[in-house]
Design a protein that fits this description.
The protein is of the alpha/beta class. Helices cover 52% and strands 10% of the residues. Strands 3-2-4-1-5-6 form a six-stranded parallel sheet, with helices on both faces. Helix 5 crosses helix 8.
């Protein structure tokens, strides 16, 4: 049992995780801590669906919009930052509530990361040269053959993570999925009380379409355009996120807006489907539907008396 305790709200994109956190914040002192690998980027508050100003005003929000577009965020670094935020929230007498959709970040925080052997620099260089020459889509297809589980959770434009997964496979002879299974359970001192937002892909589909429309109305296209002006590098990690990549393709004249938005929707739907599969395997999750969010405070208090 870890000495640090936090609530962790799980669920696919668009399921209502922010709403769930704010229901808790209305009845107890909460600090919301982001664990979404896209919502860390400062240039994309709209496209990545970061909590809006009126939502963030309701309680402290941490680890949102603080990373430049050109910067890489590893799961290990995230876990270090999140742990600091959990400690600070507890010291302030607040309930740390993790909200997001990146399952790997939760695993890194809760269990630590696998001790992957060092990769031969020649292997890494070979992968990077192939990435530059052939592009992420080709290497994503290669990864899907070698490590389908990892490929399924990565966007085909995510050059950094695709390269890493391939170099691990080529350098160790074992997949990244294998190494994640080698994680030492209970290795960290963080104990998570997991609450899952229960929904289906069919219920999510109209919500995801509507959300993309609202993002466009709020200025998503201008947001990506401004980011491109500041960081005109397509390989920058911030642009690999769903929505960012598709709108950038439109801005660069490679697709009309309707086609870009349709691809954005399809990629978001695929991501939500992968998240549903990932989180369904999480042990110890208390699942609750959105219409039952009013039961959340009592559920959390019953789960851990420390949270009263």
């Amino acid at each position: 049992m870890g000495s640090l305790r936090a609530v962790c709200i799980l669920g696919p994109t668009g399921s209502g995780k922010t709403e769930a956190a704010l229901v808790l914040a209305a009845s107890m002192p909460v600090t919301v801590i982001n664990y979404d690998s896209r919502q860390i980027y400062a240039d994309f508050p709209i496209v990545t669906a970061q909590p809006e100003a009126h939502e963030q005003d309701q309680c402290p929000h941490r680890l949102y919009g603080f990373v430049p577009t050109a910067e890489v965020m590893s799961a290990a670094r995230f876990a270090e930052l999140a742990r600091v935020e959990i400690v600070q929230a507890q010291e302030a007498g607040r309930v740390p509530v993790l909200v997001g959709g990146t399952g790997l970040y939760v695993k890194a925080l809760e269990f630590g990361l696998a001790d992957i052997p060092p990769i031969d620099p020649d292997v890494r260089q070979w992968v990077l040269e192939r990435m530059a020459r052939e592009g992420p889509n080709v290497l994503h297809e290669d990864l899907a053959q070698a490590d389908p589980e990892t490929a399924a959770r990565l966007h085909p434009n995510d050059t950094q993570r695709i390269s890493r997964a391939l170099e691990v496979f080529l350098g160790t002879g074992k997949t990244l999925s294998f190494w994640f299974l080698e994680q030492k359970r209970g290795h960290t001192d963080v104990n998570l009380c997991k609450v899952g937002v229960s929904t289906t892909l069919g219920e999510l589909e109209p919500r995801l379409r509507k959300r993309i429309g609202l993002m466009l109305e709020r200025g998503a296209l201008d947001e990506v355009r401004r980011a491109w002006e500041h960081t005109p590098d397509r390989e920058a990690p911030g642009f690999s996120g769903i929505g960012c990549a598709e709108l950038l393709a439109h801005i660069l004249g490679e697709a009309d807006l309707d086609a870009a938005c349709e691809l954005w929707y399809r990629n978001t739907r695929s991501y939500a489907k992968r998240q549903l599969t990932w989180f369904a395997k999480e042990p110890g999750v208390r699942w609750i539907r959105a219409e039952g969010f009013d039961r959340l405070p009592a559920l959390v208090r019953a789960w851990g008396a420390d949270f009263e």
